[in-house]
Amino acid sequence: MAPRTELEEQLVRIWQSVLNHQQIGIQDNFFEVGGHSLRATTLMAKIHQELNHKLALRDIFQYPTIEQLVQVMGEDQTQQTYVSIPVAEEREYYPVSSAQKRMYVLSHLEGGEVSYNMPGALIIEGSLDKKRLEQAFRQLIARHEALRTRFEMVDGEVIQRIESGAPFSVEYVQASEEETPQYAQDFVRAFDLAQAPLLRVQLIENGPGRHVMLYDMHHIISDGVTEGIIVQEFSQLYEGQELPPLRIQYKDYAVWQHADMQSERLREQESYWLKTMSGEIPALDMPTDFTRPAVQRLEGTRFEFAIR
What we know:
The chain is an alpha+beta fold. The chain has helices at 6-19, 37-51, 57-62, 66-75, 98-107, 130-143, 180-187, 224-238, 250-260, 264-276, and strands spanning 94-95, 117-125, 149-154, 157-162, 171-174, 199-207, 210-218. The protein has two domains: 6-75, Non-ribosomal Peptide Synthetase Peptidyl Carrier Protein, Chain A (Orthogonal Bundle); 94-253, 2-Layer Sandwich (Chloramphenicol Acetyltransferase). It is 38% helix and 15% strand.
């Protein structure tokens, strides 16, 4: 169904931008036309930015159509002006975000060395200019501060330092297609979070006109959205395109989040949870198939099946 009001038209345009899909009706379910949790977060942010209406993430899940969202937004007349994240002043080092702090700690636990690696592979068929490929990655590292960031402890706190440059080179290997899976398995290894870049690339040449490009990043500098951006921008830079400058970098978000944690609103939330979780915390006693091991293990496995 086509939009009937100005608000519905605005939401349709936002959905089209987030989903990269032009055929959007007000009764379409967000999660049935290409939406998922990360895109729901982006949708929530764009609605706040363009309409000055702050929704909760659960609203997107509970009211997944534009028709339903309009009703929710109409019932809640409160508006919150969108404020852009400011660019942080230049410092010797910067605080990390709460997510980065958690990953830093978990990455140093026994067995967690590669738990936050984000490997991927691209099959490249046809002619390939190795010098242009490596130059494209060097341009990416220069463009994104996160790819030049290293982490360490200062006065008991995890901090991030952004290097002006980071040594980088692509690993080149010649191997048959049968040997490639073993190279891919060996490629994933632990990162030293104190050394930038937390990105490595290996190019496997299977033969004339066929290459497999392996890449790996640590989750402390990237996520699923980042991975897509890196692959897209790598392709654009390899083709010789010029990319527009970035207004902010991830460290600006970390500084903004750190400052927000000192606000009265966050202090009230902290006080609430400290009071709620005070006293003895009961042990989690859920029925499980196996006895909980004395030492946590992070190995996983995969089960493949088909549903017909």
